[in-house]
């Protein structure tokens, strides 16, 4: 299993200040331009610096453009749907429903809308890793007929006809040309700024606060029963696992391939029913749970791991014996999970419209 990324960050992200112009000096950014954007994180506690593609270095202008696009209903086919329709800041950029029907078609989606935070450290995106970077990911919901349903040519025509957007794109990318590539790059820049690093857990790690005995007990239970997949730091191992939701899977065909998990991408039988491990950060805000939102509460999730696991050939070996907790241990574990809620993150005005 991939080694966990150490992710204990020292300082809350000062994005609101950064968006209005407080950027590091160029000399501090390895020769990057003065518009290079670097969030306030602690390199000493990361295995790698803040990752971003060389072709899309972040800037305050790019982030501002991406934020404007994120909240613009005009990008959708009917002018009524934006990215925030399924990614609400107050819910850690999730949507609070099992399967959304807020897209332009009104049809229910096949998968639960994932939360958006700390995405810059993720290597595979979507529940099955069908996208490898944020730049390509944004085209999925933007053009899907049951989500925003956009025709990219029409979107570009709409943006080119708006003087404000012309100025925003020119400021962000130093060109008068508006293209789909620049749209995706701007949206990716904004999403990369969505960093959750100031929960009580983070404050405890920084020795700014204390855990009570129940939270300490819950932390120890997490380390014993959950850490193998929800590895400390990001609270995900960034991998894909079959956690026993279903005993069998449909034959792979065009209509049901989304029910096959990571197998849709890898064609490896061991990936049948395997989905990306979601982060436990902000877990109390991101209900319902699982790739299809089938569990409404964390209690239901624990019930599943105790007596609901469906065994098959691709089941994660860590779950062969389930997870059995006493009532008190459940309460302790839930108390610890509550410490992962980042109120600073969800109330950050810089992320909101």
Automatic annotation (TrEMBL):
Residues binding heme c 2, per UniProt: 226, 229-230
Subcellular location: Periplasm
Post-translational modification: Binds 2 heme groups per subunit.
Molecular functions (GO terms): cytochrome-c peroxidase activity; electron transfer activity; heme binding; metal ion binding
Cofactor(s) listed in the protein's UniProt record: heme
Record's signal peptide: 1-26
Predominant localisation class: periplasm
Chain positions recorded as heme c 1 binding sites: 83, 86-87
Keywords, comma-separated and alphabetical: Heme, Iron, Metal-binding, Oxidoreductase, Periplasm, Signal
Pfam families referenced in this protein's UniProt entry, alphabetically: CCP_MauG (PF03150), Cytochrom_C (PF00034)
Cofactor binding comment, as recorded: Binds 2 heme groups.
Listed GO CC annotations: periplasmic space
Residue ranges annotated for the Cytochrome c domain, each copy included: 213-341
Cited InterPro entries: Cyt_c-like_dom (IPR009056), Cyt_c-like_dom_sf (IPR036909), Cytochrome_c_Peroxidase/MauG (IPR051395), Di-haem_cyt_c_peroxidsae (IPR004852), MauG/Cytc_peroxidase (IPR026259)
Keyword Oxidoreductase applies: yes
Matches recorded under PANTHER family: BLL6722 PROTEIN, CYTOCHROME C PEROXIDASE-RELATED
Protein name: C-type cytochrome
Organism field: Echinicola soli
Taxonomic lineage from the root: Bacteria, Pseudomonadati, Bacteroidota, Cytophagia, Cytophagales
């Amino acid at each position: 299993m991939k080694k966990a990324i150490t992710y204990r960050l020292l300082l809350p992200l000062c994005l609101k200040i950064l968006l209005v112009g407080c950027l590091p000096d160029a000399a501090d950014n390895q020769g990057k331009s003065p518009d290079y954007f670097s969030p306030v994180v602690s390199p000493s506690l990361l295995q790698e610096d803040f990752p971003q593609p060389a072709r899309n270095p972040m800037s305050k202008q790019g982030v501002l453009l991406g934020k404007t696009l994120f909240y613009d209903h005009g990008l959708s086919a009917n002018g009524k749907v934006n990215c925030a329709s399924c990614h609400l800041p107050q819910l850690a950029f999730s949507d609070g429903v099992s399967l959304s029907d807020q897209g332009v078609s009104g049809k229910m989606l096949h998968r639960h809308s994932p939360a958006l935070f700390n995405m810059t450290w993720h290597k595979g995106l979507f529940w099955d890793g069908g996208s490898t970077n944020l730049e390509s990911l944004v085209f999925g919901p933007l053009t899907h007929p049951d989500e925003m349903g956009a025709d990219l040519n029409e979107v570009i025509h709409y943006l080119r006809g708006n003087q404000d957007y012309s100025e925003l794109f020119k400021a962000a990318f130093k060109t008068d040309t508006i293209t789909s590539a620049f749209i995706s790059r701007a949206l990716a820049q904004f999403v990369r700024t969505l960093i959750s690093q100031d929960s009580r857990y983070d404050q405890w790690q920084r020795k700014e606060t204390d855990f009570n005995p129940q939270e300490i007990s819950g932390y120890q239970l997490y380390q014993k029963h959950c850490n193998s997949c929800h590895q400390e730091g990001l609270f995900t191992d960034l991998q894909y696992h079959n956690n026993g939701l279903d005993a069998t899977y449909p034959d792979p065909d065009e209509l049901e391939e989304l029910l096959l998990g990571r197998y849709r991408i890898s064609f490896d039988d061991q990936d049948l029913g395997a989905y990306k491990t979601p982060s436990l950060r902000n877990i109390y805000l991101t209900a319902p749970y699982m790739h299809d939102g089938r569990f409404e509460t964390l209690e239901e999730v624990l019930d599943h791991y105790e007596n609901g696991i469906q065994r098959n050939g691709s089941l994660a070996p860590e779950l062969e014996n389930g997870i059995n907790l006493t009532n008190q241990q459940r309460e302790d574990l839930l108390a610890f999970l509550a410490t992962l809620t980042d109120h600073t993150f969800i109330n950050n005005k810089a992320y909101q419209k």
